[in-house]
Amino acid sequence: MAVRFLPGTHSFFSAGKDKLLKYWDADSFELILTHRGHAGEVWAMGVEGGGEVLATGGADRSVRVWERSDDQVFVEEERQRELEEMFEDGVGKEGRGEEGEEGAESGRAGRQHLESVKQGERLSEALEVMRADNGLEEEHLKFLKAARQKPGAPLPPPRAPNPLMLNLPPHRFLLFHLRLLKGPDLEQALLVLPLDLMHLLLRGLCRLLREDMEVELCWRCLLFLFRTHHRLLLHSRDLMPLLMDLRGGLRERLKGFRDGVAMNVEGLRLLKREVEEGKQAFLVPGEGEEEDGGKKRIRRE
User: Fold this and answer.
1) How far out from the chain centre does Cα 256 lie?
2) Could you tell me if 141 and 156 are in contact, meaning their C-beta atoms sit under 8 angstroms apart?
3) Whole-prediction pTM value?
4) Can you spell out the DSSP letters for 207-245?
5) Do the beta carbons of residue 99 and residue 106 sit within 8 Å?
6) What pLDDT shows up at residue 110?
7) Residue 43 has pLDDT above 80, yes or no
8) Three-class SS of residue 150?
9) CA-CA distances (angstroms) from residue 59 to 19, 56, 272?
């Protein structure tokens, strides 16, 4: 394990048994960059006086020299790339499996992850189709607006349903594909979405919430996206109006959803009490018997 600070900064490099060279921000304890180059553990590291050159050596009997470049680094993009690499590595390892019973379990897990990848690709393809359809819709609206500005000009015919979208509106087409994702497949599919398709997905979820369609499913998708990519989403200016709309709309829908669940719970409790009272047994005096004498059991109907 080796740690070296850059002169005059609060940044440092670390290296160790994971074969990686990592660049950190010491103020926020945030990982900025990860470099791969060694085939074994990294044992030693040295920084040139000005911090422009870094040298590492390790168990693979090699010395790597790293030079600073002028390329800009976007931390969120690096996070997204690392998540995708971790996901792909996990799929590859579990897909290979091992011998015996453990191998069978690994094989099943690998097949499940491969199916998750396929579902994610299908969701991405569906969003690509929606984006292309949005472009066609914008062109149609431009032609329609231009025709209305010209007196006497014929209006273009209405657009025919898109067969690639199963002749459904865009938000219903999105809902169709979201319903196909069950359990953890939904989160895995959302995890691999690129940023531009994530914007389109948020707009589709907002439309579904406006029409009170699958509020619980929309809430699950939004919660996972905000929990995983909250910094990236909050720093996108284009999404701020949409996020504000989602916050208000989602809160109102969830409030109604919560009230409905609470009413159902109270109704079930009332029904339970009525059933228990109906089964309750009590004692009454028998005919010709004293009150303290023999008694018989009566069940309330």
Assistant:
1) 24
2) no
3) 0.49
4) HHHHTT-SHHHHHHHHHHHHHHHHHHHHT-GGGHHHHHH
5) no
6) 45
7) yes
8) coil
9) 9, 11, 69
